[in-house]
Amino acid sequence: MHYRFLILLFLLALLGCQSSTREKHVNETYPDVTIFFVNDVHAQLDNFAKVKHLVDEVREKNDVILACSGDIFSGNPVVDQYKDRGMPIIDIMNKVGFDVMTLGNHEFDYGADVLKRRIEQSEFQWVCANVDMKSFGIPQPESYYTINVGNIDIAFLGLIETRGKQGEVIPSTHPWRVKTFEFQRAKDVLDGYENLKQQKDIEVLIALSHLGSNGNENVIGDFQVANQFPYFDLILGGHSHQRIDTTINNVPVFQAGSYLRYLGKIQLSFDDEKITDVTYEEIDLSTVNEYDKDIKKLVDEYKAEMDSYLNEELGFTAAFHSKRATGSLMAEAMRVKTQTDLVFQNTGGVRSTIDKGKITRREVFEVDPFFNGMVKYERTVGRIEEFLEQSESGFYYSGVIIKQEKGDVELYDSAHNLLNNNKVLTVGINDYVAAVHDIFFGNDGKFLDYTSSDAIIYYISNSTQAIDFTANHNYFRYDVP
């Protein structure tokens, strides 16, 4: 009887505890949460002082999370050419107060060793659910990271695009720089997180995505994620450099432009653990006048440290050069430096334009930030034509004339004489093109001891007259009949 009485007391006590827990849960309040985010910053530093001011202003009154949807490297030589590549932007992001970031394809541009140092330097959490790096000595990003704000657990699940090369599952970066990593298609991993909220008692699940807005059946983008995996409460996107504020399949999808021109601001309201309202504001940072003085001072110090090197004048142009004109300049510069008959320059490797006036080292590195080496091959005209027909890519070129007659590609010399398919030409390309199109360009090339940007600097520095490629239209992309 005594034991039954004790058991009864124990059960009553247990029920009392459960009742107390439920009552506490019901009585919890859920304050609004503000999420700021950026994407595709590409090493731009100037507006971080404004971001810091805006975030801190809200942080005084509200719970705040600051996130990044990938691609913080490649685009500003102050960061890219720094003695320890990429270090300045991580230092600044640490001090601005970032909480979480997903891997973007350009995070691999500096190579594995540098990425390892940058992750170790970071005071924020990196996330990515479709990459394995731990097997290769690189700090492994978490698949997702949960942040508790007030009484709300908000998880950010990272995703990276894998459109880098036909027949392979890698992001859009130099294939040789991701050899030591293993990637999966986003669509192949997302089923595994459908019940994450219930399993981990998470109130909000956000895709911190670097997939791009749109994709296809095999390589999905944010819009496909919203349609096929609608268990996400929000998708914060990147990669496609767009300004997006839309809802698909009841899932809000946002993207805040690129190059730190905009700051995304999301306000989440809650009632009984459920999101009741999502409001989005895209802040144009060019309209913001206030800034954090300490961050601005730090940015100015990094810029001043690099000024004398980057502001060196190499040459002069009397006209603005569009991307097409700049791509034609790059191709001719590489042809001259490599002493080849023909050069191809991939369009994605032309990252900026050239302004009228003096051409500086800074401008060259803005145009070509990737440290791609140069390679010299010998190929027949027929093989080059096959490459152009099958590559599914567009190229700036120099040295020949390229035409498409119905379904056939034909090469002509500068005097408009048709070149025989058996004629052998020397071809110069950067090693990114060689790696992506290794079916046509293997290991039989001569690997040169300079980069594509070195070739451009050499050409401009040795020009005796003003650079002018404004009339050049040397671009070819095969038009499938």
TrEMBL record:
Q: Name one GO cellular component term.
A: outer membrane-bounded periplasmic space
The lineage's top-level taxon is: Bacteria
According to the UniProt entry, its GO molecular function terms are: hydrolase activity, acting on ester bonds; metal ion binding; nucleotide binding
Against Gene3D superfamilies, the record matches this protein to: 3.60.21.10, 5'-Nucleotidase, C-terminal domain
- Keywords associated with the record: Hydrolase, Nucleotide-binding, Signal
- Specify the signal sequence span: 1-21
Query: InterPro entries this protein is in?
Result: 5'-Nucleotdase_C, 5'-Nucleotdase_C_sf, 5'-Nucleotdase_CS, 5_nucleotidase/apyrase, Calcineurin-like_PHP, Metallo-depent_PP-like
Q: Which SUPFAM superfamilies match?
A: 5'-nucleotidase (syn. UDP-sugar hydrolase), C-terminal domain, Metallo-dependent phosphatases
GO biological processes? nucleotide catabolic process
Give the family from UniProt: Belongs to the 5'-nucleotidase family.
Q: What is this protein called?
A: Trifunctional nucleotide phosphoesterase protein YfkN
Supply the source organism for this entry.
Salinivirga cyanobacteriivorans
Gene this protein is translated from: yfkN_2
